[in-house]
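Our consortium's second objective concerns turning raw sequence data into structural hypotheses that experimental partners can test. To show how far this objective has progressed, the report includes one record in full. It was chosen at random from the queue rather than selected for favorable results. The single chain below, 384 residues long, was entered without modification.
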Amino acid sequence: MIDKTDTFEIVRYIENDIIQHLQPNKVIVIYGPRRVGKTTLVHKLAKQISDPVLWLNGENLDTQEWLSSRSLTKLTAGIGSYRRLIIDEAQRVDQIGLNLKILIDSIPNIRIIATGSSSFDLANQVGEPLVGRKWQYQLYPVAQLELVPMETPFESKLKLEERLIYGSYPEVVTTQGAQEKRNILSSIVDGALFKDLFMLDGIKKPAKAVQLAKAIALQVGGLISLTELSNTLDINLATVERYLDLLEKTFVIISVSGFRRNLRTELTKTRRYYFWDNGIRNSLINSFNPLSLRTDTGQLWENYIFIERMKKRDYQHIYSNIYFWRTHNRQEIDLVEERDGKLHGVEIKWSPSKGRRPPSNWTDTYPNAEYVVVNRENYLSFIT
């Protein structure tokens, strides 16, 4: 079988939407982890813009000094006649939101694209200053729905094990060979992923933050005890909470809280964590064994489905509140989507023969809720 992902360009799902919203005196903000394809995407977008484009990198010291000046004279002098501006890694520019506001409000017909690899910095800086002046997008590792034009459902299922183990970063998807995929993932983790984390305030013990990420990797989709993590890592509870928050804001993990409406026995104080990408998770714990030799296939499967569904919801604008559901007597549902006044329970099972019936407490308490089991036979319709 020819691997078409190695010979054809992967079209990102949000590309056309961004083009439509690249409007005069508006800022397009694209968030996402490093090496997820933001720069590649904006290069492609730039080719579709007929006017000259001024490219800037927020990690360049000269760019930082100029774009943080808050001086209309300096800003306009630097831009000159350009009316199309692209700023990569914009989170590195101090007060970038205020400076972009000055440009947007002062220069007619200017269009700006800003990318950032840290949701913490960039969201804080562009949020309030650019209210009503921006369109915001999140770029994920390659989504399965972005591969639909390139492979048949049969081909997708043939590659499922590879994606559970090595994940979906663009370089990984388009690279052949297990060792090369491992090398790429290692470089992402060591050279890029934690770069943003260590730049943020509050990381006084980087080694402990890495150990925390590894501990979460071993408990993907499980109930996490922060007290246990605190004791295991020998750091106080407040530091555990701070580091977990920063791991989320740098696109390493995402947390989910418990759902509760009617039962006293429903758990709500604990949280579950998932990784943005299976390959990053496996690289952190250096575990690339085939599924036949693994004991964590269920965890990989749950993380994969959770993240791919998250990509679909975001890209296709399926607005939902997201939870898990669990009672003290251990009845549980992996994913609960609350939207349009209705509950949708989703049980994620690797084996097609498991989890066919919903928990009795769920059906008794929420008789109008929907329930579906997602397994390796029917998963594609759920995530594409």
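The partners drew two points from this record. The first strand starts at residue 26 and ends at 31. The first helix runs from residue 15 to 21. Both points have been shared with the crystallography group to help prioritize constructs.
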